[in-house]
Amino acid sequence: MPQTADFVHPFAEVAMSNITREYPFASHHLAWSLADIVPAVEKHPAFANSYDWHSSVHMHYLLASLLETEAARSTDWRERAIEILSSHLSEENMLAEAAFLRENPSWERPYGWAWAVELNRVLNASGVAELRALGKNTQVLGETVFDLVTAWLPKVAEPVRHGVHSNTAFGLRRILIGARIADLHDAVDTIAGAARRFFAEDTAWNFRQERSGHDFLSPGLCEADLIAEVFTEDELATWLPGFLSELSPESPALTPVKVLDPTDGQQSHLYGLGLSVAASVMRLAPKLEAIAEKSGDEDLHAQAKGMLTRVDSLMAPGLEAAISDEYVSSHWIATFAWEALRLNLPVS
Asked: What SS3 state is found at 341?
């Protein structure tokens, strides 16, 4: 059986290659005048690499996460990885990145925000002294996101349920976890309140028809993941079986979609879809099992067990694409692959 250690070196090589590669780069900036048409590095001294800002942020997160593993402690790339992270995540660079977010409060919302919080979280919790020191620098980035999300959510009438970056539930779950760890009660309460307002009444999600040709997230499973972080145990025992009632091992949502053109950056999102769905299943199925055991619901228990049988087939295409030579895939997929692997395989 493979171990997570088997993936540490190839994923680290991918991450370091990405965050030191400036072009191609998709800026996604609104230009107010010619003065705004400048090289991306002038606006983003840390994250003008890895194809786009959010991919850069989560590739930095990935590299920091890999450095936590036992397998990374005696590698020949360890010092280079720390050097790159230290250079990119300097205090000066983080102040500049945070200032850009404040000045452009809808930019990278909420997907890039979520990864900025994750980056700060993994650095602050690191067992590597050099990375913990960098967490002091990225703190301003995390704090900026918490301020932005607290100001934004009360003005949001409806969530975005698409299976791409704009998905509300995916970003809010990660920001919520970061806010809890940081003991920021205002941010936690704001996110939890918004989640209840957006999703508490949802039931029997249509998993048969939710997928589109460029999704990398399951809107239904992202929603369930968020609500599982917000609801009490008793609330979840009622809501989760009802919401997932249309999901079975045979559902299209639990079947990997074949990528016909790996050079198509939108279609290659489907590699990530398999990985993100697998990760959600591995988080949610045990909760369903616990509910089934408490209630004696054998059908619910079978549903949970059946969902888990789909994990390996969902992950396989993305694991291969994560370290491929096709940059439209390899600039981002390894982060999703690593998170799914850590749920699926022994950690080492």
From this structure: helix
Cα–Cα distances (Å) from 309 to 238, 302, 315, 347, in that order, read 24, 11, 12, 20
| Residues above pLDDT 70, as percent of the chain | 99
Pairwise CA distance, residues 247 & 253, whole Å: 8
Using alpha carbons, list the distances in angstroms from residue 6 to 203, 283, 331, 346: 40, 23, 20, 11
Structural tokens at position 2? 């493979």
56: Cβ–Cβ under 8 A, 6 or more apart, which residues? 18, 19, 44, 46, 47, 48, 49, 50
Give the dihedral sign, CA 14/18/24/29: positive
**Residue 347 pLDDT greater than 90, yes or no:** no
Look up residue 252 and give its two tokens.
Answer: 């299209």
- Three-class SS state of 25: strand
Which tokens sit at 341?
């692997």
Give the bridge partners for 51, in sequence order.
25
In degrees rounded to 5, what are phi and psi of residue 129?
-55, -40
